[in-house]
């Protein structure tokens, strides 16, 4: 998604600071300090421009649907729920057809109207944090 990897981001920070020290002891900021600042910046940027993630979840025939592993409680929000998938035009669940439900062990989606069949695919689009990665193609912080 981005064209910079984490090392490129470090290089950009050092250039912006005009920090030419070759060893950590002579640099203005340590790599750990820059890493912390980059992580904080990515989190802040995520608030302004969250990343949209699309994932397919297999329904189990019950009235609840588990949220994906990438769901971050307190940050993530549902953008859309497509069910059934593959329809033309797409069929999206209305917000009045589901709600969040908190059990003693997890936050889930609870169907209020009709329950997807066992083994049906539910396509969930939700927001997630952006992050730097060691591989540029996996960096989700946009260049612009």
Task: Please name the defining characteristics of this protein.
144 residues; alpha+beta; 3-stranded antiparallel sheet; 2 helices; 21% helix
Overview of the molecule:
By secondary structure, the protein is of the alpha+beta class. The protein is built from 2 helices and 6 strands, in the order H-H-E-E-E-E-E-E. The chain has helices at 6-17, 31-48; strands at residues 51-58, 64-66, 78-82, 98-102, 107-111, 121-128. The strands form 2 sheets. A 3-stranded antiparallel beta sheet has the order 1-6-3, with no helix packed on it.
SSE topology:
Layout: H1 6-17, H2 31-48, E1 51-58, E2 64-66, E3 78-82, E4 98-102, E5 107-111, E6 121-128
Antiparallel strand pairs: 1-6, 2-5, 3-6, 4-5
Structural class: alpha+beta
Order of helices and strands: HHEEEEEE
The rounded distance between the terminal residues' Cα atoms is 11 Å
Report the radius of gyration as a whole number of Å: 20 Å
Strand order of the largest sheet: 1-6-3
According to DSSP, the number of beta strands is 6
The helicity comes to: 10-25%
Largest sheet geometry: 3 strands, antiparallel
Brief sketch in words of this structure:
By secondary structure, this protein is α+β, with helices and mostly antiparallel strands. Helix content is 21%, strand content 24%. It has helices spanning 6-17, 31-48; strands at 51-58, 64-66, 78-82, 98-102, 107-111, 121-128.
């Amino acid at each position: 998604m981005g064209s910079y990897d984490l090392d490129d981001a470090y290089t950009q920070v050092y250039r912006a600071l005009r920090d030419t020290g070759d060893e950590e002891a002579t640099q203005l900021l340590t790599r750990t300090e820059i890493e912390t600042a980059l992580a904080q910046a990515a989190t802040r940027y995520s608030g302004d421009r969250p990343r949209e993630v699309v994932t397919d979840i297999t329904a189990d025939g019950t009235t609840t649907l588990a949220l994906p592993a990438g769901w971050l409680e307190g940050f993530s929000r549902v953008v859309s729920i497509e069910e059934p998938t593959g329809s033309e035009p797409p069929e999206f669940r209305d917000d009045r057809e589901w709600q969040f439900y908190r059990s003693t062990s997890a936050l889930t989606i609870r169907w209020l109207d009709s329950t997807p069949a066992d083994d049906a695919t539910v396509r969930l689009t939700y927001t997630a944090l952006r992050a730097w990665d060691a591989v540029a193609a996996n960096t989700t912080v946009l260049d612009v």
